[in-house]
Amino acid sequence: MSVHPSSDAPRVLPALSPMLAVIGPPPGPEAEAEYAYETLWNGARVIAHLPGNGSLRLVAGNGMDVTAQYPELQALAALLPGPEAVLDGEIVARDLEGRPSVQRLQQRMSLHHPDAIAHGARDLPVRLMLFDILHLGEPTVHLPYTARRDLLDDLALSGPAVAVPAAWPSMAAEAMEQSTIEGYDGVVAKRLTSPYLPGRRSRDWIKIKHLDSDTNK
Hints:
five-stranded mixed beta sheet; alpha+beta
């Protein structure tokens, strides 16, 4: 006799590894309009699993579950109670002037005891920057970047601990200037027609660094 799972049971979401970028120069003038440009965060990459039951699971790029290390990011589950979703993003920390701080992020990443994590969430808060959507009720990895970005923007995920950062279609110079102003390392150029390729490094995503970037200060 077959046993059917309860309709109330959360669905098992796909275990997907993050898509990776290559490091290179920006696309030339003839290809610039084929890409959108996003901030290069230089944070801690995570895949966020939201099974639609009010819970959140954060999986690092190495496959480790890091959910318990960042309790303030549970706010995402309240912002997106359903349908079930898998999102790609990066955890970042800022210094007292609001600029990116690798040092503060490393301090948070080193905390594992519950009491230390609770104090860290208060004194060294982090924010989850969401930039792609891999599943929303059904798989979305096959969709082009533009369609996935529209889906993500339509979710209107915004709060003290969660944000969907801006993308600049066909505007490489503007994106590079803004990332310089905000103190980031550079931008990532993402081909507008590209699908999401889990676990693969592809030239559809190009990591473009400022020549004089130094965000570790």
